[in-house]
Amino acid sequence: MFIELAEHLRCPLAHDGRHSCVLMPERLEHRDVVAGAVACPVCRREYPIAGGIADLRHPDDDLPVPDLTEQPVLPPALDVAALLALRGAGGYIVLVGSAGHLAEGLADTLDGVHVIVVNPPAGLGAAPTHSVLRGGRALPLQTSMARGVVVGEEHAREPWLAEGARLLLRGLRLVALREGIACDGLERLASGSGMTLGQRI
């Protein structure tokens, strides 16, 4: 997990106000945390980091994460990058579920933008091109921290769509890898070719 991502992590429990988690690294490789923990300063819960992956799932979260054992047919990373319409380097994009298969391609295309994969598909681990997090019904990231969000087909429903919209900075875009979806807080710009494009209002 990219060390600077720690300030954008959020406890999965609902707390008043904006409280960043506290990083407690045990092992670092360059700027990546390989082992350690993330702690919430409000409820004092600790969430482990192992193999470079931060697991911020809450044990009482009974919402099953969709099965990602089969790799879906995904659009080219260049097409998704064009829909996100990002200009310039810096910041983060978030890929949810099977959209994580686009991590390497998007990292190459969007040079200088760090990729975060939440609820990764099977076999996708942490790498220099991207950070990996596990979460439940709440994506474990702060509100208005992402320059773009891409939601895999199996996650393109509530509560993950609303969570994806929450992560976006105002005026920036979410790509859902499913047609015809709608979400509060997003203006739908286009739908077709297996995707829906929305912009945060």
Any overview of this molecule?
The chain is mostly beta strands. The protein is built from three helices and eleven strands. Helix 1 (77-84) packs across helix 2 (103-109).
Nutshell version of this structure?
The chain has 201 residues and is mainly beta. The chain contains 3 helices and 11 strands.
Mean pLDDT: 90
Low-confidence stretches: none
Largest sheet features: 11 strands, mixed
The helix-and-strand class reads mainly beta
Give the strand order of the largest sheet, numbering strands 1, 2, ... along the chain. 1-2-3-4-7-6-5-8-9-11-10
Rg: 16 Å
Describe the global form.
Answer: globular
Estimate the helix proportion, in percent.
10-25%
- The fraction of residues in strands falls at 25-35%
| Gap from first CA to last CA | 30 Å
Number of helices: 3
Q: How many strand elements?
A: 11
Order of helices and strands: EEEEHEHEEEHEEE
Give a topology summary.
Layout: E1 22-29, E2 32-39, E3 46-50, E4 53-55, H1 77-84, E5 92-96, H2 103-109, E6 114-118, E7 130-134, E8 146-151, H3 160-167, E9 168-176, E10 186-192, E11 195-200
Parallel strand pairs: 4-7, 5-6, 5-8, 6-7, 8-9
Antiparallel strand pairs: 1-2, 2-3, 3-4, 9-11, 10-11
Helix pairs in contact: 1-2
